[in-house]
Write a structure and sequence with these properties.
Arc Repressor Mutant, subunit A; 3 strands
Length: 161
């Protein structure tokens, strides 16, 4: 193998390793906020905190998850005393969610972390030229598409975990 081929393989392996580390760091980061919360649960709390009158439909649209998954998640958050549900007077069909004091605390921590991470990401992105940004965006879109297609293929094959 030529030196240039080894160099390219090393870069490719480093990119794959870096993507893996990003995923691992993200997965490790969220549970430290509050016990046993998943990333999706923290994002659900965030949506409820951002939207007065949040209901299952609003939350599912925002998080791009099924209403069934959101209903299940909200039940868990209710049992953890992070959200409470309520109904408007005169409308007993729609159920809305709002944060409890504990939910507010998690919401504020998440918002602060999210805002800092967004600011830090922007400062990194600003270091690149428009052409480099276009390549990075194309790469990230292809990775996201690949991940989405992999999960669809696994579901289609009936392999669930």
């Amino acid at each position: 193998m030529e030196e240039s081929e080894r160099f390219i393989m090393k870069i490719e392996n480093n990119i794959i390793f870096s993507l893996k580390k990003i995923q691992e760091n993200t997965e490790l980061f969220v549970p430290n906020i509050e016990g046993e919360l998943s990333i999706s649960q923290v994002h659900c709390i965030s949506v409820i905190g951002d939207n007065e009158g949040a209901n299952v439909t609003n939350i599912s649209n925002e998080l791009e998850m099924t209403t069934g998954a959101i209903t299940k998640m909200c039940k868990k958050l209710l049992s953890q005393d992070l959200v409470e549900k309520y109904q408007e007077t005169g409308n007993k069909q729609k159920i809305y969610y709002k944060l409890t004091e504990s939910g507010q605390r998690i919401y504020k921590i998440h918002k602060k972390l999210h805002d800092k991470i967004q600011k830090d990401k922007k400062s990194i992105i600003d270091k690149y030229t428009e052409d480099e940004k276009a390549i990075i965006l194309r790469f990230l879109n292809e990775i996201n598409s690949m991940i989405g297609n992999t999960f669809k293929d696994i579901e289609k094959d009936g392999i669930m975990y």
